[in-house]
Write a structure and sequence with these properties.
The chain is an all-alpha fold. The protein has helices spanning 10-20, 25-35, 38-55, 60-67, 71-83, 87-99.
Length: 101
């Protein structure tokens, strides 16, 4: 089923097309270093880690202690895990499959 969310936009399509051209982690570092601030990248990484921890059954307190995130942000991530576009779940599933190979 095609994505029908609020992000759909021709410029966002071009951004995602650019990201899909990246071949490895080093190229990701190079591109995202130019594209985003360090704080933006770290915030995205932190959110993904919180989503993985929530999916693994960790408590808000455990996640806050591990990541330094507020429980309000963790709650928002939990809401997207349950009621979002399923992007977190898709990526977490693929990462879990990759580590079990």
């Amino acid at each position: 089923m095609p994505y029908q969310g609020r992000l759909r936009d021709p410029l966002v399509d071009k951004l995602f097309d650019a990201i899909l051209t990246l071949k490895d982690r080093e190229e990701c570092y190079m591109f995202f270093d130019d594209l985003c601030t360090v704080a933006e990248i770290k915030a995205m990484a932190q959110r993904l880690e919180a989503a993985k921890m929530l999916a693994a059954g960790k408590t808000y307190d455990q996640i806050a202690a591990s990541t330094g995130m507020s429980t309000a942000t963790i709650s928002r991530i939990k809401r997207y895990l349950l009621y979002g576009s399923d992007g977190y779940n898709l990526v977490i599933s693929r990462l879990n499959n990759k580590t079990s190979e």
